[in-house]
Write a structure and sequence with these properties.
heterodimer; A: 122 residues; mainly alpha; B: 229 residues; two-stranded antiparallel ribbon; elongated
């Protein structure tokens, strides 16, 4: 339904002068896709909160990894579908994931440095 | 005797202002907003790192997930985080992202004919921009309620390490939401003044990217700060 790629709505002169065709950009999702994505995000959030209220699960080893995976899933879905990173130019992906990777590695390094994460050797 | 008709060049005042495009043919404003979002990722990860480093190292309460008894008064302070309220505010912010993306789709498809009532509702950019702004303001209301209740229960930014890092992190996020709501209000003003059309889709797209970024940051904060004990 929505076939407009907003980054490419060039005026005629700019369109003619554009050097590289936008073969990497595709149509954005449809309205129904947006509603489905919202439903999935809501269900994941409900699952997260539901897990929080299960004491046996909270006490177990799987609680934190499960929450982190669910959170990462929600993050990815919003970035891919609502921010259109899945459909937009590759440069935008680089501009976003590059700093994100640096930030994530810094976070992990700080966690090791301050003793919140451990690596078992031997 | 009449003067000969002078040749006056036609000036299209309604033509869009010239924009700068990169050599890839991408609008530089969109490249700029993605670069800005990348830098904002680093800012928020630094705040989240600070929160996680200080987590569990507060000497005095109240604490986020545990009860604490004040040794001087014997007063028992219950865990301070209110998960049901924060879950509701998280849901509101998630829905605001849906409204924002519907506003963008409505602007992009403004010139398309709408035959059914459903198509007219989905194509109403003012409605979806209003809904997004209202949802953002509701989220801020939840945050104001949370901050006020924390202060009443004895947790301020100066109480302990948890209070300092928590208020700094969520306060920065709240400031970003406030900026987003103001941005949405300016878009609404433009829409009421001259109408947002498909030629303005990039304006709305850039605002939408910022809004969704604020949403994804909250997704991370909700898990790391509120749910993980």
């Amino acid at each position: 339904m929505d076939t407009h790629a907003s980054a490419t709505n060039l005026p005629d002169s700019a369109e003619a002068n554009a050097h590289v065709p936008h073969e990497e950009e595709h149509a954005h999702p449809t309205w129904s896709t947006y509603w489905k994505v919202a439903l999935i995000l809501t269900l994941i959030t409900v699952a997260e909160v539901w897990l929080y209220y299960i004491p046996s699960f909270v006490a177990g080893r799987g609680f934190i990894p499960t929450l982190l995976v669910l959170s990462a899933l929600k993050f990815t879905i919003v970035v891919m579908f609502y921010m259109h990173l899945k459909y937009d130019h590759r440069l935008f992906r680089v501009l976003f994931t590059g700093p994100l990777m640096i930030a994530a590695l810094t976070l992990l390094a700080l966690m090791f440095l301050f003793g919140h994460l451990y690596i078992k050797i031997m | 005797m009449t003067a000969p008709a002078a040749r006056i060049p036609v000036v299209h005042t309604s033509a869009p202002a010239p924009h700068h495009y990169t050599t890839l043919g991408l609008d530089s404003r969109k490249v700029a907003i993605w670069a800005f979002i990348g830098s904002e990722c680093m800012l928020f990860v630094s705040l989240i790192s600070t929160y996680l480093i200080y987590k569990g190292r507060s000497v005095v309460g109240p604490f986020p997930h545990e009860t604490w008894t004040d040794p001087s008064t014997g007063h028992v302070l219950k865990p301070i985080l209110n998960i049901p309220v924060t879950s509701a505010s998280t849901f509101v912010l998630l829905m605001s992202s849906l409204f924002m993306v519907l506003a963008l789709a409505a602007v992009q498809n403004k010139e398309r004919p709408k035959h059914t009532r459903g198509e007219r509702v989905l194509g109403n950019s003012k409605l979806w921009l209003w809904m997004t702004a209202i949802a953002g303001t509701t989220f801020l209301g939840f945050q104001a309620f949370e901050f006020t209740s924390f202060v009443h229960e004895g947790l301020t930014i100066r109480t302990n390490l948890f209070g300092s890092s928590f208020f700094t992190l969520t306060g920065f996020h709240g400031a970003h939401v406030t900026a987003g709501v103001l941005w949405l209000v300016t878009l609404l003003a433009i829409d009421y003044r001259r109408g947002l059309g498909s030629r303005d889709s990039l304006l709305v797209d850039i605002a939408a990217l910022y809004w969704h970024f604020v949403d994804v940051i909250w997704i991370v904060i909700f898990t790391l700060v509120y749910l993980i004990k």
